[in-house]
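Data availability (excerpt). The following record was deposited with the supplementary files.
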Amino acid sequence: MEKRRIYVDNSATTPIHPQVLEEMMPYLTESYGNPSSIHFFGREARKAMDKARERVALGLGAKTEEIYFTGSGTEADNWAVKGVAFANKKKGNHIITTKIEHHAILHTCEYLEKQGFDVTYLDVDEYGLVNPDDVENAINDRTILISVMFANNEIGTIQPIEEIGKIAKKRAVYFHTDAVQAMGNVDINVDKLGVDLLSISGHKIMGPKGIGALYVRKGTRIDNLIHGGAQERKRRSGTENVAAVVGMGKAVQLAVENLDQHVRKMTSLRDALIDGIKERIPHVRLNGHPSQRLANNVNFSFEFVEGEALLLSLDMEGIAASSGSACTSGSLDPSHVLLAIGLSHETAHGSLRMSLGEINTREDIDYILDKLPAIVEKLRALSPLFKQCEGGKVSV
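Predicted structure:
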């Protein structure tokens, strides 16, 4: 099969949709006004931002005044957790989250622990699911925030957010969800979910990089993360990235309009890839929930294979994938998510994430299934542990 260039790392970032780029271009060229200026150029930029805000709000089932643009999904996560923590510290100092959150949440919680806050990190089961009963049992009279990600960026498991939302409301605790991976892959309505805060990112949904948004339910007590000017209704200072805001607004609109079609396509490609790997390669483990997972997520652990060698070998065949979160690609430590679901360090190191997108085709899947088995076989031939594996059973 002829060598191709295939991108299956869409959970790291996606290409910009042509319609998104088209809407952005005027605000990178002739419509360059500062939206805080009162002259025509400024008013033109402000009008474009208002339209984008309406699109994001509509996509989330929120009010326009509940949408705040940020510089990234990470900033939105930081603002949600730190903002609620510091604004409500007189009420309590306890935060509940899980062990498989994105580092934008985990590292923020670790920072808050140094500031005197108490954080409970809940366990998940072998599929990466948190038990809503564990969430409720962790709540005490000092609990001010629950933060549970909507869908995991590494293994794709979708959490019972609506059920947790009901618990949070019953116990009068603020509830935040990191929906960066869920947006564009799962139907989202903030009222149905019962969330008070929700984070999304532009470049995960065929929008530009460097733009995110935080939904903050009206009445939520939250401190500012960035101080300075009066932008974002005095809540997030700094001259707005108008072109990126416009792009994100369009990206959200397209993601919502095309959701059903996208999910059908991704599910078909995902299942073909999962089934093909299981059929052609022995000693593999599908990570994440078998059905309650993102339509575009495929995550396997390959016994007796080192993940970095696997990625480099795939890259040489023109296949761009990842071993987990792009935000931790420089780390030699195994994935905290895979360790949390019970994998050994060795097995976790042999993980591969392939995240699909609109650019992918069935021909891409066939190409991967043609190349991957031979790569795994070659790498295993170099492994002394694999040579001790006889009859399909590991003898070490």
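Summary of structural features: The first helix runs from residue 18 to 24.
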